[in-house]
UniProtKB/TrEMBL annotation:
EC number: 3.2.1.4
The name this protein goes by in its record: cellulase
Cross-referenced InterPro entries: 6-hairpin_glycosidase_sf, 6hp_glycosidase-like_sf, Glyco_hydro_8
Annotated source species: Vreelandella olivaria
Pfam family, one: Glyco_hydro_8
UniProt keywords, alphabetically: Carbohydrate metabolism, Cellulose degradation, Glycosidase, Hydrolase, Polysaccharide degradation, Signal
Length: 84
């Protein structure tokens, strides 16, 4: 069984949010849970966005995408953790 690459999940989450696809309160809760799942899976306590498909290394573009997503979802705590 193939798994969906982490970058695909991140991009789809971003596109869905930016396109305004998610508008109802139930949908907003799903997006909030999706963001929380993203943070839990890909952002370390030290503020690194990890590439789970490549030995848990970090990339500068991953940090940038993480900060953009955190800003989009209004998650200032995660944004600042990534900035450090």
């Amino acid at each position: 069984m193939k798994t969906i690459p982490s970058r695909v999940i991140a991009v789809l989450t971003l596109v869905a949010g930016l396109c305004g696809i998610v508008t109802a309160s139930a949908d907003e809760r799903r997006v909030d849970r999706a963001w929380e799942a993203y943070v839990d899976r890909f952002i370390t306590d030290e503020g690194r966005v990890i590439d789970t498909g490549n030995g848990n290394i970090s990339h500068s573009e991953g940090q940038g995408w993480g900060m953009m997503l955190a800003q989009h979802y209004g998650d200032q705590q995660t944004f600042h953790k990534l900035w450090q």
